[in-house]
Structures are given as C-alpha cells and as structure tokens.
Amino acid sequence: xxxxxxxxxxxxKGAENEVxxxxxxxxxxxxxxxxxxxxxxxxxxxxxxxxxxxxxFIAARDARKxxxxxxxQTIRDMKRRDAIIMEQEAASKEAARVKSTLTMKRAQFxxxxxxxxxxxxxxxRQLYAAQxxxxxxxxxxxxxxxxxxxxxxxxxMQKKFQVLMTHQxxxxxxxxxxxxxxxxMELKHxxxxxxxxxxxxxxxxxLKAMHVKGVCELTAAQAADLHAExxxxxxxxxxxxxxxxxxxxxxxxxxxxxxxxxxxxxxxxQQEHRQVHYxxxxxxxxxxxxxxxxxxxxxxxSTLDDDDIHSKSDTVSNRGRRSPYGADxxxxxxxxxxxxxxxxxxxxxxxxxxxxxxxxxxxxxxxxIAALKEMYRTELSKLEVQIGSRxxxxxxxxxxxxxxxxxxxxxxxxxxxxxQAKEVQMEASVHEAEAKxxxxxxxxxxxxSTVVDGIININPKGKVSRFNRAAENMFxxxxxxxxxxxxxxxxxxxxxxxxxxxxxxxFTTGIARxxxxxxxxxxxxxxxxxxxxxxxxxxxxxxxAHLFTGIIRDLTEEVRLEDExxxxxxxxxxxxxxxxxxxxxxxxxxxxxxxQMLPPAIQVQLMAGQPIVPEAFDQATVFYSDIxxxxxxxxxxxxxxxxxxxxxxxxxxxxxxxxxxAYKVETIGDSYMVASGVPRRNNDRHxxxxxxxxxxxxxxxxxxxxxxxxxLKLRMRIGMHSGPVVAGVVGLKMPRxxxxxxxxxxxxxxxxxxxxxxxxxxxxxYKLLQRDGSYELVCRxxxxxxxxxxxxxxxxxxxxxMPLPExxxxxxxxxxxxxxxxxxxxxxxx
Length: 830
Prior knowledge:
alpha+beta, 8-stranded mixed sheet, 5-stranded antiparallel sheet, 16 helices
C-alpha cells in the first residue's frame, strides 16, 4: 500500500508537471505567434507603403505626360489656326487682287466700247455726208445736161431722174443699214471676246485657288498624320518606359520580400533557441515527448514561414510574371542588372525606330505633295489648252459670221439693184403704155356699147360716170337720165339705205364685201319693179382716185328655171325623208326584237360581224319553272286560248324580270328559264336576285287569272341551283343565247323534283342565300331520289310584303298573318 501510495503520488506530481509544461508551451506558442504576426504586419505595411509610393509615382508621371501631350496639342492647334488665318488672308488678298484686275479689265472694256461707238458714229456721219454730196452732184449734172431741151422732154427726164434718185436713196439707206449691222456685229464680237477672256481669267483663278486650297488641305492632313505618328511613337516609348519601371518595381519588391524572409528566419532561429532553452530544463516528462514537441514547433514555424513568403510574393508580383519562390538574392541582383542594362538599349532602339518612321512618313508626304502639284499643273495646262481652243473656235465663228453677213449684204444689194433695174424698165414701159391708153380708151368705149351685160362706173361718192346701152335696156333709163346721179336710184329702198354705209366701211377699214367677187342682188327699173341681177364689182385707182366698175347681168330667166328645179328637188327631198323615217322605224323594231333574243354585248358583236366566242362564268344562278297540269289544260283549251294564256303569263313574268338583275334565257312551252350573273357578272348577288324574282313570280302566279277564263287557276313548280356555266350563241339562221353545264341540269332537276307552288333550292344556292341572312329556308325532309345532296324550300324573306300561296306559307316556322297593303296587292294583281 505504501508502494502504491508512492506511485500514486508520483503520478499526481507528473500530471501536475505535465499541466505546467503544457501551460508554458502554450504560452511560448502564443508568444511566438504574436511575434510572427507583428513582424508580418510590419512587412505588409512596408509592402503597402512601397506599392502606394510606386502608384503615386506612376500617377504623377501619367499626369505629367498628359499635360505635355495637351501642351503639344495646344501648340499644334495654335499653329494650325495661325496657318489657317494666313491662308485666309492670302486667299482674301488674292481675291481682292483678282477683283481689282477684273474691275480694271471691265473699265478697259467700257472704254473700248465707248471708243468703238464714237468711231461707228463718225463712220455713219461720213457715209451720210458722202451720199448727200453724190446726190447733189447728180442733180447738178442732170440740170446741166437737159437745160436746153423742150419742156415735155424735161418733164419726162425729170420723172426718170426722180425714179433714179429714189432708187439711189434706197441703195444708200440699205448701205447705211448694212454698215450699222456690221458695226453691231463688231460690238457683239468685242463683247464675246471680252466675256471669254473674263471667264477664262476667272476659271484660271478659281482653278489655282482650288489647287492652293487642295495643297493646304493635304499639308494639314499630312501634318495631322505626322503629329499622330509622333504621338503614337511617344506613347509607345512611354509604354516601354512604364514597362521597365514596373519590372524594376517587381525586382525591388522581390528584394524586399527576400529581406522579409531573412527577418522571419532570424526570428524563427531565436524562437528555436528559446524552445531549446526551455527544453534543456524539462520536467518529469520523458525525452521522447520533449523531442516530439520540439519537432512540432519547428514544423509550425516552417509552415508559417512558407505562407508568409507566398503572400509577399503574390503581393509584389501582381504587375509581372511570378518568379520562383526559392530565388536567392544573387539571382534578383542579376535581374536588376539586366533591367538596368536593357533600359538604355531599348530606348536607343525605340529612338532609332521612331526616327526611321518619321523619315519614311515625311518622304511619303513629300511624294504625295509632289504628285498633287504635278496633277494640278496638268489640270492647269489642260484648262489653258481648252481656253486657247475656245478662243480659236470663237475667232473662227466670228470670222465665218462676218463673212456670211458680208455675203448676205452683197446678195441683198445685188437683188435690190436687179429690182430697181426692173422698175426702171417698167417705168419706161408705163410711159409707153400711157400713150397707147388714149387710143385704147376710145376702142373700149365702142366695145362697152355693144356688150350684153350692163356696165356702170361710179366714183367714191356713188355718182354714176358710165352707163352703157345694155344697162339702158335693162333698167329702162337713158344714160343722160342716170349720169351724174347717185347709183341708189337703181336699187330697191332696202338695199339703197345700206349702200353709203358699205362705202364708208370700205374706205375706213379696207374690208371688201363685194369688190373682187360676184354676188346676186336686186335692181329697180324705171317703172319701180324689181328684178334679180348678178353684179361683179372691181376697183381701179386712177391718179389717186377710186373708180368702181360694176358688171350687171339680168337673171330673170335663170331665177325662173332655178325655182322650177328647186321645187322638184324639194319634192324629192320630202320623199327621201319619209323613206328614211320608215327605215329608222324598221331598224329600231329589228334592234328591239334582236335585243330580246340576245344580250346587248352579243348583239353588238353580231352586228359588227365578229365571231362569238363561248364564255365561262365561275358563278351564276339558274331558275327553272313550269306549269303543273299543263298537258290537261292544253287538252281542254283551243290553240288560240293557249296562245292567249301563255302570252299573258309570259308578259307578266317578263315585267317581273325587268325589275331584277336577271336574264331570260328561253321558254319552251310552259317551261321558263332565267339566269342571273350571266351575261353580266354581279359577284355573289345572283342567288339573291333569282330568289327575290322567284318569290315575286310565285306571288304573281297565285293571283294570276284571265278575264275570259276566271275559273282557271295556275300552279307552278320552281327550282334554283348555283354554280359555273358556259354561255354561247348557237345557230346562224335563228341564233340563240344558251347556257350549258351541270348547273343547268341540276336546276332543271330542282324544278322537276319540286312541288306545286313551292320553290326548291339546292344546297349551293342555300349557302349563298344564308350569307345574306334575310331569307327563310326550310330543309326538305322527304329528299327526292334524283336530287344530289340536301335540298331546301325557299319560304320567304324579311320585309317581303307580297302575298304568297298557302303551300309555301305553311312551311314557314314564323307563320304570322301579315296584312298586305292595298298598293302591293294591286301591284301583284297587275
């Protein structure tokens, strides 16, 4: 027990020592961790400070570079503005110089025009003076030449001389006019030359100004390109410097990281020494446990050291590539030396490259300017060549125009002289004719006395100066009773009152109503009776006075013959008018009958002799009807009664059809066929038109009766179907407009399978009527075997007030007794 008690005591002491050791170890570990954390905090602060300093350095450097770039841009802008101002000033000076030059040219041109006008005026005055002197000389020579001749010869020669002087004045006037035209052409040519020179100078100046502007613009663009290239090179050089600075910063941060690592190692060495010192005075714990604790402490410190190294390396290498963590200080020093040596080499290489680029760009710009100037010189040369060509062309045109004018003047003078020569010859002929005229006048008087027609001469006042023997016999007056009196005594009063007005109007306006043409009139004899005459009036100017000559022929016998012929012609005209009226009536009847047999369009084609081509219609509605028991009615009636019955019935139906858009196709006995949508298309209205017409016919047949057979009541079946049909004209002797296709067959089937006094429609027609929505249709339950598909009964329509038969009304689901207005009932009966 004592031994156990000692063991227990020894164990308790060992446990207490272990607790104390654990507490001391924990204290040491906490102390070591605090030291390491403090050191790391110092290192991180130092790294952050270095990093912040580098960032500030880079920011300050960027700010300086931006300021320098802005300063360079400002200087370039100022230089560009100065250059633009200088260019504008130069352009303004050049424009002012050109304006002053043009003003001077305009003043010189005005002075030239004034000089030419003065010169032309002087030439005209000299020409007029020379012409007057020539006329005076000719007059003096003529007076001297015929001074010793007789007066008759003098008068004759004086007339000839007047004619010659008149001709000479005409020639002088024509020469003066030609001189004026030549002077005007000279002024025109001068103005054209000035306009061409003015325009050429402006064109050359504008082209030069455009060239200067183009060179300036190209120079400005090249300067902008050069500045942009320099800025790019500067930016590239700055980027290279920034890369080198960042690389140096990375190397410095690595050096700082190595220093921090060395400090951590020294701290760890001190901590290990302290741990060893603690381990040299162990407690009751075994050596193995102490060694194990020391190994764990070294592992912990080593792990902390590695984490610290990694974190610092990550911090300092964020701008470049991460270098090996195990790199020593010698490697980092070598890298620092490498970057220092490479900095100068890179700068030299960049400087030489920038110089080469600037040199090449400058050479390229010089070549571009040289090419542009060469192109401008070529354009200027072309413009000068064009201006020279225009000047030569203008000179050629002006020379040709002047030559043509001179030739025209020469031809004009030649023609004038030819005309004057003919006039001189004519004047000589006139003088010769005057001598003959006296003899001829005596002969004429003898001839006028023997002619059959009456000849009367009057003066402008209407006084008679000649009255031949035929006129005496015609009017019953002697010449002595008429000569010297007014011509109105030979006219009826209604014509005599207007005679003076005709003369005054002719002398005032020159409009001749009778002169130069013949016309019929009436003359008055001495006994006061009137007779028809034909009068022709001519005018002769004798020594400036008007002399009117009238030739009068008695038309009494001719008028009698004309009246007889006119009566015969009028009788024939009336007979022809009656025949034409009968022909028009017959033609109208024929056209009416033809229009009832054929549609208007088909009728026009047949009348024009055109071939009738069958036409297909996509949609139409066909109507069939017949009289129930028609055979029995026919057997009990005479042929005349049947004709009267069918005529009355079909006349009623034709009147109903005319109220709707429907066409009556044909009637065969009691069968009646109508179509809508043919021959005139009406979209989808054909079914509604036929339905309305069928209801109207059903209402009419229910009240139809003959006056002489009131006991006869007719019953009718009606069928309708809608679909495509083909229409055409059949026959030549009696052409008929017929419909073909399954639609007509189905419509006939609808009629034949129907019931009396009811309207049976097919399913196709039913669908079209349903679209309208105003028709009442009832499905037929006892569908006939020959019907294709479902059929329906047409019972009525909204707002349809005509009376319908009981057979139809009984099918209506809305069978309500509606009073029929008297007017509608009377209309249905009619």
